[in-house]
Structure prediction request, 330 residues.
Amino acid sequence: MQELLMGNEQILKLATDVFDIEANSILELKNRIGSSFEKAIEILYNCKGRTIITGMGKSGLIGKKIAATLSSTGTPSYFLHPAESTHGDSGIITRDDVVIAISNSGETAELLRLLPLIKRFNVKLIGMTGKTNSTLARMSDVVLDISVEREACPLNKAPTASTTATLAMGDALAVCLLKKRGFSEEDFLVFHPSGALGKGLLYHVRDLMSSGDSMPVINLEKASRFIDVVNFVSEKKLGCAILTNSKNEIQGILTDGDIRRAILKGQDINLMRTEEAMTKTPKTIKSDELAAKALSIMEKYSITSAIVSDDGITPIGLIHIHDLLKAGVA
Prediction:
């Protein structure tokens, strides 16, 4: 193998060419999905068993990822190695299953040896192939065209653009099925109980919020002086004060950030009114929302806390970024 010397510009050009070729291979898929894709979704949606994914080599590696994505989004799936299938593993296939067979050429020998068994049990077969006139395509109930103009490999040999297109097609199937099944964030928790994602779905705002006596609520009519509310914020140690009126309706919030900004204005804080410094339209969230939603709001608006209110008027709690951090959500 002869080493080829490449300058930095050549390396960057080659890398961008790879991105362009693979991006175009995905975009081309948009022109090929239609009735076949719709039929594939219906078959998978109505499947009473599992979705069995099979493929050799790089197609097999992509198949494993597709199976994992389907399983985690509500479509029970399993990867079957076609070479092992002829040595007993094909016994996992039942009449209630659907098989997705992946082969760019559509002529992979190990995979083709599995097809008679699939047909014998009248199992629905979805073929993902780059050759729509191949043996796999002819034997499939539905064909999903994953062909690409060329591979990103300069030799046009190594599976690169073709595997990217296959993965994208698999993702499209998974996402459409997720939506069709009405798969929710709570459902997602069942399959992802660990990690930040799972924890974000495990907790609701009501589970982590400060409430009752620990809630930093103060009547604005009785604490109109800025300095008094600053002292109250310091006492409560939650970094803010929720300002309400005599009817316990939210009037605003005074946060550590509001306090710093007020002080930087150079005014005499002993003479300043609370209303001059507070945020009059604070962000609120309902108690039954997921903790992950609270985190999303805080990230979007660059804040560290949100008032919990089920009617948007009366405060019933405060959710703080520290609460989310302690719970492992953030």
